[in-house]
Amino acid sequence: MNVAIEFKDVNYTADGLHILKNITGVFPEGRITTLVGPSGAGKSTLFKLCNGLRSSSSGEILIKGKKIDEYDPVNLRRNVGIALQSATMTKGTVLENLELPLTLQGERIDKDYAKELLHDVGLSEEFMERNAKDLSGGQRQKLSIARTLVNKPKILLLDEITSSLDRVSQHDIEELIEKVNKKYGTTMIWITHNLEQAINIGQYTWVMMQGELIESGDSSLLNSPKDERVQQFVKGELG
Amino acid sequence: MSYLTLSLTLIFVLIPIILSKTLNLGLEKDTIIATVRSIIQLLAVGYILQYVFDAEHFIYLSLMILLMIAAATQNARRKGASIRGITWKLIVTFIFVEVLTQGILLGLGIIPPTPQFIIPISGMVIGNSMVLGILFLNRFTAEVEDHQDETELILTLGGTPKQAIHRQLINSIKASTIPTIESQKTIGLVQLPGMMSGQIIAGADPVQAVQFQLLILFILLTTAVVTSIMLGFLSYPTLFNERMQFLKFESK
What we know:
Distance between the termini of chain B: 45 Å
Radius of gyration of chain B: 21 Å
Mean pLDDT of chain A: 92
Oligomer: heterodimer
Number of helices of chain A: 9
Largest interface: A-B, 25 and 17 residues
Helix content of chain B: over 70%
Mean pLDDT of chain B: 91
Low-confidence stretches of chain B: none
Shape of chain B: globular
Number of helices of chain B: 10
Helix content of chain A: 25-40%
Structural class of chain B: mainly alpha
Number of strands of chain A: 10
Structural class of chain A: alpha/beta
CATH topology of chain A: Rossmann fold
Order of helices and strands of chain B: HHHHHHHHHH
Radius of gyration of chain A: 18 Å
CATH architecture of chain A: 3-Layer(aba) Sandwich
Order of helices and strands of chain A: EEEHEEHEHHHHEHEHEEH
């Protein structure tokens, strides 16, 4: 198993709070890993460490075998894309938001490619000239995913991207994740609260609780977890 | 004007105090403090200026300008307390603006190199720069705080800190310089500038007073734009670390 990201005894502390505790584990390359756990487990913070938006307080993070600090932050973030739960939009149209990753590099997006990306996430091309701030929560989330794909990242971090979507849209995004993973071999790491999604779509799973990595391995571990806390979480007895 | 006549002008201080008292506005204390401070400060400056003009010595001239820069920095730094090293950034900005404007004025022989010209113009330049600095810092800290998500979004997409803060920076520069530009559009139509009015009242030729006023207006335009841009470009890097991470920001 090739490794995309490796955590070696990583800790993260902020404002006196120990948010991530001794995290040691790997995210396999080219696979879909789901990251599950109750709220406040430190999942989103872990993503920010992978993308270089925050630095660990101690320990080592390796991206494809190389220490994260040895990467240029801009190149790292273009290769380790992240779609955040907030799906923040900048002032402007859908097209302007979509091509933002390229605008930042002084380039423009090809219109046909823009249409293809929007189509992939389930938005029609009619949306292109609409004001991005007028989109619904679900539409913003779809646009946010499409925007992250523009950089063609090798690793894609998805933070609860389907939580505000209806069932049909959720299904579209699940298909998209599988399609991108197969087509480009992109390593996908996906925070989800939906355990069904985690088992069906995920090939590998991390279960985190209170800043600790409790269990990791093949997604089937969610069917028969060893740890008592994970058993409780799977039964829905923990937040 | 005699001191007796001058004392009669205190009627204009009494009016707001009476109105404040009647309407319970609570402005009496501040009005009295402002009045007493302005009397003491201006009289002191009057005597100091007289001494400096008579002495005609470079050291006194420099001390006067340094005093202005120190007072302006002290006043403006509170607005930018959430920006690391704001005191030095303000000092550098004020010195740069002063050197730039005086360099052009003296270098091109627009004004003679005498304290009578250098000190009042420096006062206007540094004073205006201070107001612009306050306006800019006020707006910039609010913009940065309100758009933290947007800043972080651009970083996640592979943008540089400069790109991540660009919109907030431009908005703040524009917002702080607009009042200067707008007020110049109506100058002479709505209001007669203080310096020009003062010269005319003192008996100067109105055309010459207008010429000097124009000089000041153009200088203030440069001062406004240079202050905002310089403060902006000195301030934004402190919001990020060397790993291009956006540091936690809270306006104070």
